Amino acid sequence: MGLHGKLIAAIEFKASGDVFHEIFRHRLQELCTANPNIQGCDLHEGQFGQVGAIISWTYTHAKEVIETIDEEKRLIVLKVLEGDLLEKYKSSVITSHVETKGDNIDLVMWTLDYEMLNEDVGHPISLFFYFIDITKHIEAHCIPCPTA
């Protein structure tokens, strides 16, 4: 059994992929408002939305570094530096990017690349569903509720 894994999801995002990328890159603290499971986001080094910025999330006490930003692809790559994930996984890299398919349908793409510490460690399925949940919360936050 291989110790490397990759999970990929594509979620249709009705609020505009540009909005998702903007929030996930420049307005990370807005995620705390959009998703009640995230209590906070602290900047340790650098600037929000810049490569090299080191960010600490209080949902899993993960500390991540922004490794790559590509505005054209609306892509952000985060590498886990510290936290609960590293108790089971030697490495974890989280990528989000937005793709637009025909008829202006935006898809938020999540990719989780990881290496398990040993063969007894399970795949991080619940974490992966957490990213999907974050996407749904951001979408709900961005689309105004219809008035009665």
TrEMBL record:
Known Gene3D superfamilies for this protein?
Answer: 3.30.530.20
Q: Name one GO biological process term.
A: defense response
Q: Which SUPFAM superfamilies match?
A: Bet v1-like (SSF55961)
Where is the Bet v I/Major latex protein domain positioned along the sequence?
A: 2-145
The record's section on Pfam families has: Bet_v_1
Q: Which InterPro entries match?
A: Bet_v_I/MLP, MLP-like_ligand-binding, START-like_dom_sf
Listed name of the protein = Bet v I/Major latex protein domain-containing protein
The protein's organism comes out as Perilla frutescens var. hirtella (Perilla citriodora)
Instruction: Identify the taxonomic lineage of the organism of origin.
Output: Eukaryota, Viridiplantae, Streptophyta, Embryophyta, Tracheophyta
